[in-house]
């Protein structure tokens, strides 16, 4: 798939993330005020990992979506499952807060891909973990901004 086709495929995908308050269906370049509201509540939640005391700065919570599936090529299901477990283990070792997600292509040409919503991260951190797992792009955002496609 060429660059334009790949960009179109990323944009024609729903990035569903599961939070304690329910699921959100995120899209590149599309605002989701309910997700932003949840991010604001999460940033002030005593249950979240202590990263810093809640301030105006933490109100603009950075987040990202990453998967370990199909790194530039289509892999067998068992290979993708092993890669995704390695990604989960890596995120746990980094002590980054994360929640489960699933990337759903509009055209059903790609099978659903499990993913993770990373919280309290910078775009550079999301991009670094995406590169580590040989991805071509990741989704990055922060509270109050549109989800962005970040090429690696």
What composes the largest sheet? 7 strands, antiparallel
Could you say how many structural domains there are in total? 1
Q: Order of SSEs, N→C?
A: HEEHHEHEEHEE
Which band does the percent of strand residues land in?
A: 25-35%
Strand order of the main beta sheet, please? 2-1-4-5-3-6-7
Class inferred from helices and paired strands: alpha+beta
Rg, nearest Å:
15 Å
Q: Which spans have pLDDT < 50 for at least 5 consecutive residues?
A: 50-59
Summed over residues and divided by their number, the pLDDT gives a mean of 89
The helix tally amounts to 5
Helical content band: 25-40%
User: Given the C-alpha coordinates, what overall shape results?
Assistant: globular
Cα distance spanning the termini:
16 Å
- What is the strand tally? 7
Describe the protein in words:
The chain is of the alpha+beta class and 152 residues long. The protein has one domain (3-151). The chain is built from five helices and seven strands; from the N terminus they run H-E-E-H-H-E-H-E-E-H-E-E.
Can you give keywords for this protein?
152 residues; alpha+beta; seven-stranded antiparallel sheet; 28% strand; globular
Task: Set down the secondary structure blueprint.
Blueprint lengths: L2 H9 L1 E7 L2 E5 L6 H11 L12 H4 L2 E5 L10 H18 L3 E8 L7 E7 L3 H10 L4 E6 L5 E4 L1
Antiparallel strand pairs: 1-2, 1-4, 3-5, 3-6, 4-5, 6-7
């Amino acid at each position: 798939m060429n660059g334009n086709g790949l960009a179109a495929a990323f944009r024609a995908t729903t990035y569903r993330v599961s939070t304690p308050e329910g699921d959100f269906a995120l899209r590149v370049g599309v605002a989701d005020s309910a997700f932003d509201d949840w991010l604001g509540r999460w940033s002030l939640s005593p249950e979240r990992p202590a990263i810093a005391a809640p301030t105006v700065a933490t109100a603009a919570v950075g987040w990202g979506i990453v998967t370990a599936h199909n790194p530039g090529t289509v892999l067998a299901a068992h290979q993708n499952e092993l890669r995704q477990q390695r990604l989960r283990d890596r995120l746990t070792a980094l002590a980054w807060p994360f929640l489960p997600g699933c990337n759903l292509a509009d055209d059903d040409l790609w099978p659903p891909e499990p993913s993770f919503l990373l919280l309290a991260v910078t775009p550079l951190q999301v991009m670094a973990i995406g590169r580590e797992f040989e991805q071509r792009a990741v989704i990055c955002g922060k509270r109050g901004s549109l989800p962005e496609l970040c090429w690696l």
